[in-house]
C-alpha cells in the first residue's frame, strides 16, 4: 500500500498546479495530467540540453 502524499504547496500537480499530487499518479493529480505531460514529451516540447550528435559520413556507393 502506498503512503498518502501530504497536501501542501510543494506537492501540487506539476501540470495543472491546482490539485495535490496523488500517490497513484505522482507527481500528477490524475491520469489526465500525466497524459498531458507524456504528450509534451512526445511532441518534443521538453528537451534535455546537449551537444548535437555528429552522424558518421557514409559513401552512397557502399550501400549497393
From TrEMBL:
Keyword Thylakoid tagged: no
Cofactor: Zn(2+)
Cofactor binding notes: Binds 1 zinc ion.
Keywords from the UniProt entry: Metal-binding, Zinc
Binding locations of Zn(2+): 13, 16, 29, 33
GO biological process: regulation of DNA-templated transcription
Record protein name field: DNA gyrase inhibitor YacG
